[in-house]
Amino acid sequence: MRAPSGSDVAAGEALLSLENVSLSFGGIKALRDVSFDIRKGEIRAIIGPNGAGKTSMLNVINGFYQPQEGRITFKGRKRTKMRPYEAARGGIARTFQNVALFRGMTALDNIMAGRTLKMHRGFIWQLLRFGPAVREEVRHRHRVEEIIDFLEIPQIRKTPVGRLPYGLQKRVELGRALAMEPDLLLLDEPMAGMNLEEKEDMSRFIIDVNETFGTTIALIEHDMGVVMDLSDRVVVLEYGRKIADGTPDVVKHDRRVIDAYLGVAH
Amino acid sequence: MLISALRIEGWPLDLIYKIFLDPFAQMAAAPDLLVQTLWEGLVGGVLYALIALGFVLIFKASGVFNFAQGIMVVFAALTLVGLHERGVPAFLALAITIGVMFVLAFAVERLVLRPLVNQPDIILFMATFGLTYFLIGLGELVFGGDPKIMITNDLYLPKGAIDIKMLGGFVSLQKIDIAAAIIASLMVAFLAVFFQKTRIGRALRAVADSHQAALSVGISLEQIWVIVWFAAGVVALATGIMWGARSDVSFALQIIALKALPVLILGGLTSIPGAVVGGIVIGVGEKLGEFYWGPLIGSGIESWFAYVIALVFLLFRPQGLFGERIIERV
């Protein structure tokens, strides 16, 4: 894997920023006038009570949802909405809250699918399975094997993912996202439903990805211990509004955040 | 016969004999006839398999049960013959027909699938009914409703038969049937490798499993749908040529496409090898049934015997021979 160099955004500058984004479904306002940015190279956590709009936020970033208002600037390009294909092409990869893998395929094929956009040989070459197409397949397979080693899952390479336990499915899903060699990695509750040991493994992978490959990471997580340990900056949402934004220490002591999580005394 | 002369009180021995013994005695007595029957079943089965393959392709990638597959077979064959009738050279007509199937795939994606994305499966299924009647109308309007003769000669498809002397008799193989078997095998092998080993094949399977996840890795659903519908269109054209060469090209052909349903039940909706094996089992099964057991009830069982086989399968193996076993985590 390479260190991401695809963008001309310097470390520490905003890789992605949202300005005044609002998103509603009929009468339900999922996001109201939210602005925040993700700096290149950081681990950015998005937290908030259930229904605060965290997943909607990720969906806006990778183009599953298109906000009614606001602007999204990614790698210096301003736009009013993303499209999933554009996002993937631009280097945004993601995982899902409820694990969205290709169930019928092996772990290896799932991760290979992450390389779809990196493979360019045309239809005809692939049909013939000849020359350049085979060489390309071999080259990408090599990369994928590196990812499999990195995530310590060589033993399940050929197992259909539907049969894997939940924790390993999450790891394969991370592998598929890493195979895209993303500049920005979105993780939607990467540790949900995991035991302590699995959580520690996953935390280690997230830190390694961030440090070794310099990948910028935005993650949603409910485990506050994990969030405070991992992240450089935290944004807090409640009922679709941003109520706090800053380093873990600042956010932890913010009055509104404490109220949102513990309730206000009347 | 000795056994039929025996009678035990209350046992319809005669019937048991006719069902369980006599057909096999006949097979042993005239092995050349048996081989001939098996061969005809095999060829019919290969063509069922081709039709089923069209269904499987589309079902695998988009989860849509495409009722219009049968009419696509007729429409493709009709376009080919119709163009030739109007003076287009055979191979140019073939190329244009392939082009027409591509335009059809593109139009289906744009006008049918895209507006209905994320709708329940039954809605998409109904939409393919609509597509069926649209294609019937369009075909009749442009090329007329009369049966046409397939342009076998102009496409350099072989005709005539080979007689092989074996087992004390003759077995007659139609050359067109041999060609059909070869072409079908090649197409199946090709598609199986393509699905298993290439980037686009992987993307097709990915889309079949999860639209959301496929989008997130940058797979374009639109592009995949056009590819599968086009592939199904080409398979339909090949099927149309082969069926057309055996009978003629008419709208009645689409009824035969319904035979693909028992094939799919047997083979599983998502399996390419399943479509092939299912097709052959149905084809051979119904020919043997017709020839050896048919006379018992006055023949004509070929038209429904396939459904009986499928029904028996549903009882014991609802996922089909090669279908994916659905295991739900609770």
Commentary on this structure:
The complex is a heterodimer of chains A (266) and B (330). Chain A is of the alpha/beta class and 266 residues long. Chain A has 2 domains: 1-91 and 184-266, P-loop containing nucleotide triphosphate hydrolases (Rossmann fold, 3-Layer(aba) Sandwich), CATH 3.40.50; 99-180, no CATH class. Chain A is built from 10 helices and 10 strands. Chain A has a 6-stranded mixed β-sheet, sandwiched between helices. In chain A, strands 2-1-4-5 form a 4-stranded antiparallel β-sheet, with helices on one face. Chain A is globular. Residues 1-7 of chain A have low confidence and may be disordered. With 330 residues, chain B is mainly alpha-helical. Chain B has 14 helices and 2 strands, in the order ααααααββαααααααα. Chain B has a two-stranded antiparallel sheet. In chain B, a hairpin with a 2-residue loop joins β1 and β2 (169-174). In chain B, α13 crosses α14. The longest helix of chain B is centred in the first third of the chain and has 32 residues, at 31-62. The radius of gyration of chain B is 22 Å and the shape is globular. The termini of chain B are far apart.
